[in-house]
Structure formats: structure tokens, C-alpha cells
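Appendix B. One record, verbatim.
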Amino acid sequence: MNNSNNSVLAFHPCGIEVSQLILVLRLRSHDHDEPLREFPNTREGHQAVLRVLERSTRPVRVVLESTGLYGLDLALALHQAGVAVMVANPRAVRHFAHALLQRSKNDRLDAQVLCEYAARMPFQAWRPPSAAALKLVAVARRLEALTDMMAAEKNRLHAACLSEALPAIIRRDIERSIQTQQRAIHRLTRATLEFILSDAELARRYQLLLSIPGFGVTSAVHTLAELTLLPADMDVRQWVAYAGLDPREYTSGTSVHKKVRISKAGNKHLRRALYMPALVVVRHDPHVRAYYEHLLARGKTKMQALVATMRKLLHAIFGMFKHDQLFDGQKVYAALDVSVPTPQEVLCP
């Protein structure tokens, strides 16, 4: 897997495979790979990684795979020490490994693939989010996890209530679990709102999101949290790509023409946060509803039209944040024949 052109690089590529307990480091110096090194995924281990990189005779470019919280502290430590670090999309790394005909997978091989990725692929330096963004995202994703757990428990309770064979103690235990999760969600939501309202910019953006029909407290908190991770200089197309809502075409020659789908090569939490608001805004905003029906008339399926509406909402949010304006459905889709629906039409479309 060695690259004969590495000796002419102005930097030394480095790949670090991150797991819960161990960091596996592969550094390439000039034209040869140094022996693999392993470090604990702790603060002391991060400092040991920095000492190894500081001995390099050329600037080092480090590539990590995005692994959530396991690699965050390491990425922050590298960035603060002035080391160029890239947090690569796992799907991009996986496809890169396939291109190298990498058949097996383990931590040592993954570190080698990441080192090769650092040497060959375009380098996009990672920019850490602010402390406020990290705090907001951590709480929002915890709320998301609790919501999923409560939904699972409610499904178990429904099944348990239908079965006479299960003892009553099982149902009572599930009910207590649901109550505990409900209290935790309420407590975290209240703390999150206090934190948002204590920051002027976050509070203003939160109010802007609430001006969109279909956005409530939960969806506004989750959407705002995910968007705070984005650098300020990103354009709306980059927002769409970040959310994985950009279209993916699959054609080959004259015979292969698969349906255009979204890439999903992005932030699944942001897509999830936009889904329910898109369902609601289609029912309650006449302009967005006209856009949705226009897509259906063009032959799009309901799901395709809904995903396109999610993308439109993201465009609208980008403009609202940029110009500090409340939601205006007419800017989403300025159809001439749109009329405001009556309450009966809203309830019974």
C-alpha cells in the first residue's frame, strides 16, 4: 500500500484509528512507514501522540475517521497544538478502502488506510465547533436517545398489555421506566432552553425557527443544535450536502438510469430533525403546500416531495439566519393561486 511518490510530499501523512480504549497511529516519514504505535484513548495518550508527531521533520497531516465522542477530545488536542487534522466521513474512508482492494478490516489496517487517505486525498482541515455548540449538541443528542428509548418502552408496554401470559410486574416496571425517561426529557429540555435563552444569538435563531409552521420546541432545539456545528462561511449548498439531502444520480450509458435519490452522506440527526416539521408545514402553510402539490403533479412520489420540502426548509432557514428574518412562505414558493386555507381545510385536507 506504499506510495512511491510520498518522498516528494511537503508533509508527512498520518492516520489514527480511534476506538473507545485504543488509538492506533500510522505515520509515514519520507518514503517509508514507521512502525504502528498504540496509545490509550485518554488525555495522557493524546499527549503521547503529540510527542510522536512533534518529532517529525516535516509538518504532519493527520486523518481521523468521524467516530462521535470517541475521537472528539483527540481532535481538539491536535487542533489546539497546531497539528493539521481532518475528520473524514466514514463512508468516504470505506469507499477509499474498497478502491485499495482492502478486504480485511481491523484497527491496524484501518490506521494504514487512513494514512494512505491523508497522503492521496484532498485535505480538509477540521475546524472545531464552539464550546456552546458542543454543549448544545451533546444535550440535544441525549434528548434524541432518550426519546428513542421511551418509544421502544412504549412499544414493549403495548405488547405486554396484549399478553395475558406476562405477569403484571413486567407492565409496572415498564411504566416506571417510561415515567423516568419522561422526567429526564423534561429536565434536559428545560435546561437546554435556559442555556439557549442565555445566549443572544442562539435565542434569536431559536425564535426564528419557531416562526416556521411545524416547528415546536423539540424540533427547534434539535435543528438549532445540529446547525451550530456548521462554520459561518458555509453556503446553502454546503448546508444541503451536510444534511445528506443533496440528490445522487446513478446513470451509466443508455441502459442504466436509476431513480435519483438523496445521498444520505451527511448528518442523519439534522435530517431527522427536519422530517416532522416538513410533514406539518405542508399541511399548515399554503405556499409550502402548493410547492408540495406542484411536485406531486410532476409525478414525484409523496416521499420524494416531502424530502424536497425538507431541502426547501433548509434553504429557508439559511436565508432566515443570514438576514435575521422570520419565516415567509411566499419566499419558499411564490405561487399566484395560493390562498389561505380555512380551519376546516386544515383539519380535513
